[in-house]
Amino acid sequence: MSTVVDVSTAVYYDTATRLFDAAAAFFAAVDAEWPELAKAAEMAGSYAEAQTWADIYDRQAQETLDLVSRTANAVHNYGTILLESGYQHALADHTANLDPGPEPTKPAAPQIPVFVCRVPLPAAGGPGNGLSGDQSSLVRDALGLADKIGITIPDGDATKMSNAAAVWERMAAAGAVAGLVGTLEAAARAFDDVTAAESAFIDEDLRAAAAAAAAVVAAMLELAASTREHRADLDGLRTQLVDHLTSIANALMAELAINAAVSVASSWVTFGVSIAAGIAAAAAIAARYARPIRATIEAWRTARRAKNTARASANTLANHAKEMRRLEELGGSAKTPTPTAARPLTEADKNALADYSAYGSRLNNAMREGRITEEQQGRINELNSALDKLPNHEGLVVRRTALPDDVLAQYQKGTNVSDPAFTSASTGSGFTGPVEFQIMSRTGKDISGQVPTAYAPEAEVLFKSGTNFNVVDRFVTADGRTIIQMTES
To answer: Signal peptide position in this chain (predicted)?
Structure first.
């Protein structure tokens, strides 16, 4: 397979467009189901174990929908990054051309959307008791069965639970949701033959977004399964209650010739008894069955408590949300780029840039050690002045180096770091070192066209002395490299 040396900007632009469309469709497919999901309010029941289950359900539902929002935003923002990177490559090609013609037109990014999922209503709640008598019944007043049982009979709306499970399954199966993983993996593959320095990072980031999208689908299916399990367990209990109540009804008929009817509604079991005489005898019959019913309920509630544990996806969702926040932050730096035009360089400017390419390490060491001579300060001023006249390079650049442990320790996630010296990076990948800085540049300057020919292949992007950076993330790869991702403050 051949490699692409001259980067095709169409790969960047086309992929960005696919990401914009996929992010919007993904979010819309989930958000459209919210009205149905909201109907699941107070489905779980009001007894203690139901409230515990509902708390776990509510938390995972919120975390799942939060990851939906973050993934949609991250994918959209990454499309913005690709647009900007493609444009920077187009500018570089234009500058390198001996007969460049008109400057390339910067593609317009779509308006930044607001992807925020609505939070589902609480799942806990219900009528308060899972045993009810019809309006013509004297079961509560006369038989006092619920009082004789002595504990809350589990309630919960079985129909709402089935509907909620169906909504989660429908969201997970929606083409724009289930298909986002494939779209992002295809987007990553589009850069397989691109040799630009950032292509490896693009692949990693898009596959991270694909993993988050897969986690969303898995969490939705887990919520559906958990809800169906909760309903199935409640149905099982109600089947046992019906058996007990049927036994009571049979005894009432056999001993007192009293008719009783047993039925199951969405939220409770109905036991209807119409009696005009023999109330005390009927209540005594009901009392014989109260203890077995209580034992059944207690055993069932003990089994439910054992199942009320945090879902397997809890940590996974948090980890993916962290990754999507990182991509959101990277995207933020490319949302409102402000390219600057180059200004003519004086001979002093050109000399400062050329000297830095050969002797910059000496100057940087002096700056970091605080032993700058008057002559060196003059060179620093000239170099900063020259950099001010060059156009900004906006996009991802890389710096590979080796750092002492005490210096490396300064670069921790969430910190702001300022190097008193000049910071060198590259749009190429020809350097080696155990520490790799991935910097989203806003004001770095591409000096490759201003240095002696021998240094031009380094594709150097230089930041002014004292530039401030935010450390967005830091991690170690499988091969032992320390990766530090930064944006300009």
So the answer is: none
Residue 110 belongs to some domain of the structure = yes
Q: For the CA atoms of the chain, what is the radius of gyration?
A: 34
Amino acid 337: pLDDT: 41
**Could you report the per-residue pLDDT of 361-387, keeping only the tens digit for each?**
889 899 989 999 998 999 999 999 999
152: left (phi over 0), alpha (psi -120 to 50) or beta: beta
User: Residue 395's domain is classified under what CATH number?
Assistant: 3.90.176.10
User: 27-51 pLDDT, tens per residue?
Assistant: 999 999 988 988 888 888 877 787 8
- Cα 162 to Cα 260, 305, 467: the distances in Å are 29, 21, 57
Regarding pTM above 0.85, the answer is: no
Residues counted in the chain: 489
Question: Do 368 and 327 reside in the same domain of the chain?
Answer: no
Give the model's pLDDT for residue 48. 78
Query: Number of structural domains, the chain?
Result: 2
In this structure, is residue 286 part of a structural domain? no
Domain shared by 326 and 351, yes or no? no
Question: What is the pLDDT at residue 74?
Answer: 92
Residues 317 and 405 reside in one and the same domain: no
Beta-carbon contacts of 213 under 8 Å, excluding residues fewer than 6 positions away, are: 26, 71, 177, 180, 181, 184
253 and 260 Cβ atoms separated by less than 8 Å: yes
83, 181: one domain: yes
Dist. CA 81–CA 109, nearest whole Å: 10
More confident residue, 309 or 377: 377
Tokens read off for 20: 């914009």
As a whole number of Å, the end-to-end CA separation of the chain is 40
Helix or strand run (H / E) with residue 74? helix 48-96
Phi-psi map region of 42: left, alpha, beta (phi>0 left; psi -120 to 50 alpha): left
**Which residue in 357, 361, 439, 448 sits closest to 398, CA to CA?**
439
Quote the CA–CA distance of 163 and 177 in Å, as a whole number: 19
Q: Are residues 320 and 435 in the same domain?
A: no
List the domain range (segments joined by +) for residue 26.
Answer: 9-118+155-241+307-332
418 three-class SS: strand
pLDDT in tens, 231-264: 888 888 878 877 888 887 788 778 877 777 665 5
Whether residues 314 and 431 fall in one domain: no
- Residue 219: pLDDT above 90? yes
